[in-house]
Amino acid sequence: MKKNIQNKLKQIELEKGVEILYAVESGSRAWGFASPDSDYDIRFIYKQDLNYYLSLWEQTDVIEFMTEDDLDGSGWDLRKTVKLLAKSNAPLLEWIYSPVVYYENEAFMNQMRALAKDCFSPVACLYHYLGTTKNFMDVCEQEEVKLKSYFYALRTALAGKWIIENNTFPPVAFMELLPIAPQNIQEKVKQLIQIKANQDEKYLHPKEELITTFLQETVDFNKENAAGLRSGKKMSEELDGVFRELFID
């Protein structure tokens, strides 16, 4: 499948007249709790030619595609990406630290990862994860729950807890986050991962009170500790430099 994805990305470059600088897996396959029928969530950063950036007029800064073999692609233009990095955008940071990489311009990504550490805003990222967890809480309280909902809620709840406890951006891989949960939660989650690995996305699982109680406790903990977190550094000049370097021969 990796080769199919790389071929699709080359096709996008030719069709759209862009240069892809970085492409990764996002979603459940990057997080480590995919179902057999999960899509491939391909995320990428691309560069246009110089005339695009010199234009006076607003133009699209996103490329999206969906294929019959479950490739769900979404890419962001370089300028959009750099601006989002300045804001410590959590989804972008997850791309940057994804464990599944399809392609990267190494020099560019070394700069991006270095700047991501300085731009990282614990408070901004915590509120992102807190909001996502809360969006899943009602679903997780139902008598039957899609395991996908449990894992989305658990991942973002633990990501928020990680930020509070470590003051760094959390690991993208779920199993690297799990050790900060209590032992009984870890054991239950590992059981659910095995079930999810053998069920399709439509499978409904009986409500797990242990999980929902832990989620609510973690949401409360994250909310209580949010106010004391710092913001990221302002890196405007450095980010401008990374952007401009890509147009210097």
UniProtKB/TrEMBL annotation:
Pfam families: RlaP. InterPro entries: NT_sf, RlaP. It comes from the Bacteria. This is Nucleotidyltransferase.
